[in-house]
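Data deposition worksheet. Section B asks for the primary sequence of the deposited chain exactly as it was used as input, without tags or linkers unless they were present during the calculation. Section C holds the resulting structure in token form. Section D is free text for depositor observations; keep each observation to a single sentence. Incomplete worksheets are returned to the depositor.
Section A, Depositor: J.P.
Section B:
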Amino acid sequence: MDQKAGTPEDHRRRSDFIKKLVQSPFRDKPLPPEYSRGVPKTIVQFWHKRAQLPSDVCDCMKSWKALEAQGFNYLFFDQEDAKQFIRERLGERHVSAFEKCYHPAMQSDYFRLCYISVEGGFYVDADDVYIGSPIDRLFIDGRLKIQPLCYDVTTGLMVESAVFTSEGAYSPSWIFYFNNNPLIAPPRHAVIDRALAQSTHLLEHSVGEFPEIQSTTGPGNLSKSIFELDTENIEIESSLYVLSNWERTASTKWHLSYRNDSRNWRLSNQKQNQG
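Section C:
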């Protein structure tokens, strides 16, 4: 792995690379044969304590469970279910890494990598609400479907997708990266496997500390994995499909009860969760 991965120069190179992926027309190129096989039509969600699932979060999750009527398989995991899955499918090394995830958001981040790596499917966060547009198109080929994001460090605000996805749009204060929600991929996709391996390594070497969530298991880890594969001269563009209009499929519900306490990772990053 790149030994300069934490430098400002590396972060800029990574952002510029992701900008190119987000704004380039490669999505219209012919699909390589190796990605012709589709993604399992399984929707996967996680909440750390099944018995303590807030009613407002439950309402969000029901919007996805309703897709069972359209032939989708819906799976809900809590931390015990997730640990059992990881133990049975990946083994004790990955269980130990999962147990080092000190916050529910981190558990969710790590588990989605484990599940999608092994089984493939569609992982979506519990606070996203499905708004009804057809999603079958997301399953017809084996590319990894991911949502791009852009943060403006000057304003401290996210840049609207309609703005930053336009070809040539740029500001030196913008940071381009990929969200880890949703993750839609077949089993053993190279990006997911890299992100899982990298996250596992970071967790294993986090003795005596609470590692930062985003860069260890979240969007930073995923974005770094994509960037590193490209720097190793691995063809990456053809394996991705950028969801530049994810808001047409789902919306994040921000006014939820758990966001006001330690269950919100933004309030508990690098702190032990008390919820």
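Section D:
The chain has one domain: 8-25+35-268.
Residues 8-25+35-268 form a domain with the Spore Coat Polysaccharide Biosynthesis Protein SpsA; Chain A fold (CATH 3.90.550).
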